[in-house]
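Fold it.
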Amino acid sequence: MIWVTLGSALLGLGLSGAAAHLLSHRLPSYRTVFTAGPLGALFGAYLTYMALGPGHVLAMLAGALLVGAVLLSLLVRPAGRLHRAMPS
């Protein structure tokens, strides 16, 4: 279980690094990104472990990757300005 935890944290850090490199202009501070990625991955591994039980290491890592990516996608800001219609 400790290897899955470390692997999930490393996956989250790698995912955060890739997101920070590719989308640096659309993300908040690096501190937020590099905190949210590993925490999301750890939560994803925990959630998958609780759903499937022990013995599903690859599934737990996949769950960690998916939840980490979803959490990082929630941090992405829109590319351009939002044009809202003025109420009349």
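The mean pLDDT is 91.
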